[in-house]
Design the sequence.
């Protein structure tokens, strides 16, 4: 639903960006009424899940809705749309804790904060692909804000990610196996930061995709860390 809202909001920009010019709304393949109907159906399906959640988790779920609607417009007024995206995209971590444990411990909040920092890092690498077009259109992003300091800034956010995940895992009682998983993730993120190249946008896209592995490694580390 969030992606649909973003495509509706950005339809007049996407057609002028090389990466997004063939999106259905941007090229006229789909009209606004159809897109809005699709969005309503998606939101209704998401809302149907609320009936199986606890009252606290239900309230937590509703709190993310404003972020979902605000994010598509962030590039118009802030250089930090990636932070808003990260907060919304990883909100399910907080909901899972609320639903399963009945509360959201500080360690879980740190894990969520680490995921936000991680998303700022990898989505910044992705944003460099569009940086030239975004500048021309008057849009903002962390890639434009960081400019030539992109490599250092991405490494910094990956460092914050590892710090938050490590401390959060410790507070949640993870075992030594989790620490080993963090070391593997540290090597992977360090490789990404080292590989990032401002002058090669095709590498930025590949590094963005490499974070599928980061997510898988975190899932494995969290699982084995319970033993």
Sequence:
């Amino acid at each position: 639903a969030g992606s649909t809202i973003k495509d509706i909001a950005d339809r007049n920009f996407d057609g002028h960006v090389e990466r997004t010019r063939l999106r259905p709304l941007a090229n006229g393949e789909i009209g606004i009424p159809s897109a809005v109907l699709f969005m309503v159906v998606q939101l209704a399906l998401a809302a149907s899940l609320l009936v199986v959640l606890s009252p606290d988790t239900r309230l937590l779920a509703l709190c993310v809705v404003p972020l979902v609607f605000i994010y598509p417009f962030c590039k118009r007024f802030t250089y930090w749309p990636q932070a808003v995206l990260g907060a919304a995209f990883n909100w399910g971590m907080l909901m899972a804790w609320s639903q399963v444990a009945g509360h959201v411990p500080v360690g879980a909040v740190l894990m969520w904060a680490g995921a936000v920092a991680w998303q700022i890092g990898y989505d910044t690498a992705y944003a460099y692909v569009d940086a030239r077009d975004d500048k021309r259109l008057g849009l903002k992003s962390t890639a434009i804000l960081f400019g030539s300091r992109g490599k250092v800034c991405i490494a910094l956010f990956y460092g914050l990610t590892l710090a938050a995940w490590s401390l959060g895992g410790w507070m949640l009682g993870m075992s030594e196996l989790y620490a080993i998983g963090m070391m593997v993730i540290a090597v992977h993120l360090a490789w990404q930061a080292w590989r990032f190249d401002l002058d090669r946008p095709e590498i930025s896209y590949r590094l963005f995709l490499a974070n599928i592995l980061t997510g898988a490694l975190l899932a494995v580390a969290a699982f084995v860390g319970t033993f």
